[in-house]
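Check this:
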Amino acid sequence: MNKLLLGLSAVFVVIFCACTADKVQQKSIEELEQRLATQFTNERSDSLVSLYRDMVKAHPDDHANNLHYLTRAAEIQFDKRKDGAPATRWLDDAMAHYSEGQDLTEIMGLYARIYNGVQYHTESTYSIDSKDMSRMQTHLLRNNAWLDSALVRTDRKMTVNGMVTDKALATKYIEISEGYAAITQSNDKYAELLSMAGGLAKTIESYNKAIVLYHRLSERLPEHPKARTALFMQGFIYENDLGDTAKAKATYEEFLQKYSDDADYADDVKMALKTLGKSAEEIVKGFQKQ
């Protein structure tokens, strides 16, 4: 009996010590996350990534938390350390061992952002090789529904009462949209994603980014209904946000060449061309003469 009690006591001690160690490590993670959010340093990021990966090794059956830890580690490596190669490998490890039956919103959102970075050849993606790229593309193609979820969740976080309040999250929303658009095989989805991303870029005053997105849509799908709006918006941004009357004029003229009979924008474009570069006073005088 005494031996049995001693054995049980030893088991309880081991379990207690393990739980205590986990709590200490979890608290260290939370503290480091807060400190890193306040001020980034390479040392803090390395420490936090190490803690994430240690927790994964310590609890191989905790799939939900392991998926989150590896995704967070990859996000730090990609966003802060500008090194996409280990980030993609950690994400692939997460998908291979911990993804079954889990919420993939977070990991797919990050995958889409990295994939978008590859399209732009950003610094963070230089070291990603073709095999990692192929696996990334496969994961994205198989999980479109989770990409939609990532956009919905990011939209909820970045807006309050319909107003964008977090520019950093809005930028992530745009990057997810671009990555999603790069892999979708649906023209309607492509147009929807770039149209929404272009509008959001304009909202946060990233005007050149908005023009890039709208231009990509209008050039790739000129016959799509959203292409007309995209081309008009390019001219509008050149004129009203960037003050580039030459590019605004060229864009408006291109619009009339392609869509002269458009019921929504043709008259507005013609009027814009007549008033382009004129002051409010000059415009008023012109109307008075007419």
Summary: Residues 8-18 have pLDDT under 50 and may be disordered. The radius of gyration is 26 Å. The beta strands are 159-160, 163-164.
